Amino acid sequence: MLGYIFNFGWLYDLIKLLVENVFNLQMNTRLGESIHFFFYDSIKIIILLSFMIFTITYIRSYFPLEKTKKIIEKYNGFSAHLMASLLGIVTPFCSCSSIPLFIGFVEAGIPIGVTFSFLITSPIVNEAAFAVLLGSFGWKIATIYVITGVIIGIIGGIIIRLLKMEKYVEEYVYKMKAGNAIIEEMTQKDRVNYAKEHVIEIVQKIWIYLLIGIGIGALIHGWAPAELLAKYAGPNNPIAVIVGVLFGIPLYSNALGTIPIAEALINKGVGIGTALAFMMAVTALSLPEMILLKKVIKPRLITTFVIITGISIIIVGYLFNWLL
Hints:
Blueprint: H1 2-6, H2 9-22, H3 30-60, H4 65-73, H5 77-89, H6 98-107, H7 112-124, H8 127-137, H9 139-162, H10 171-175, H11 188-223, H12 226-233, H13 240-248, H14 255-267, H15 272-284, H16 287-293, H17 299-323
Helix pairs in contact: 2-3, 3-8, 3-11, 4-5, 5-7, 5-9, 6-7, 7-9, 8-9, 8-14, 9-17, 11-14, 13-15, 14-15, 15-17
């Protein structure tokens, strides 16, 4: 019974009744499958998304930017990269936050490599992506995704540190002195209200991307030719992962818009690694984020960041295709 509840079996059956009795469609038809996919995924993802955003935001209330900087400052070497990547999980995942985060970390004296461990992990791994992955693919893939996202952040940051690329940060960033902000203590009531407000704020911002992604996924689910997709983007195609990453870089979206598409592609025979590599590329290497970062770092460092992260994502994609 608990499995039926937590695996959303009740919702699947409810939407099935809606499709068959309200829309008068059979589930084994293309239109019926697409409509069921759209309503089922939309409601399921919104429920999971709200729960995960509330939970992680509550945890995040204990780690404001100033405190996050102070925590990372205490670590050195590998442990600093690990801590930066782990803290990246519970930080805002909007690419527009990359510049103030970058400046804040550099101003605090945190090494560039450690800063990039944070910046790489933060957009890839967040509560929203985890919630949608959990609802679409289950605990196994969602957990592996989180672990690989952290590993990518650690490896990327370490390589950038070893390359000693501090000189490719714009000079004005080093000259900025923001000072130490006062860390305000929050009561339990404040934290709960903060989490609730953040749920509303995030859902209002991303619902359109979510529905567009689910809509595209529904079309793929109902009409995309499974045999063709499996042939050219299946796990047996040696360049499918690379193509998925290259297609993902120019796009502007977030994980919420791409995960439903990835789910539909996987259901049609596309390799899990290929679909998830595409999603990672969109979230971590999107062209708009690179344009934003160009304001604080020079082209050579941006290029290095893209190459390191891109290769790491490709490796992870092939690993997913091999393991799953």
